[in-house]
Amino acid sequence: xxxxxxxxxxxxxxxxxxxxxxxxxxxxxxxxxxxxxxxxxxxxxxxxxxxxxxxxxxxxxxxxxxxxxxxxxxxxxxxxxxxxxxxxxxxxxxxxxxxxxxxxxxxxxxxxxxxxxxxxxxxxxxxxxxxxxxxxxxxxxxxxxxxxxxxxxxxxxxxxxxxxxxxxxxx
Length: 171
Description:
- This is Aste57867_17754 protein.
- The structure is a single chain.
- This protein is mainly α.
- About 70% of the residues lie in helices and about 0% in strands.
- The protein folds into two domains: about 15-100; about 110-150, no CATH class.
- The longest helix is centred in the middle third of the chain and has 85 residues, at about 15-100.
- The chain starts with a helix and ends in a 31-residue tail after the last helix.
- About 0% of the residues are buried.
């Protein structure tokens, strides 16, 4: 019982400054602890907001990933179609090469007007003695002497007031 009484008795004069210093330290620690608890609450709230933001970003990334996956699938399909079309085109080109004669010996096609003009010039350059030349001259409506240049872009000569009568075609 003596020990219980001594524990409840006021501190001795020697111990009092030591106890007051310890009480001051305890108040300081308690103040720091309260401040740290407030900071912890602020950090918890910030962590909750950040976690919600991260969750939203993850959902958005998941949606974008799905879109990218869908786009990649469509591109793979389109590439497959393009490759099939390319193979078909190559096959058709091989078939055309097999059917068509060698293209190196072919002369380039000439437009019909150039062929006609060349033929007409040849006929008229002969002097207009044949019946065919006379027919061409009468069709043109002029009395042509020598070579006639019929090219695209040059105006045709105007017929004279009274064209010569057509001559009979003699074979």
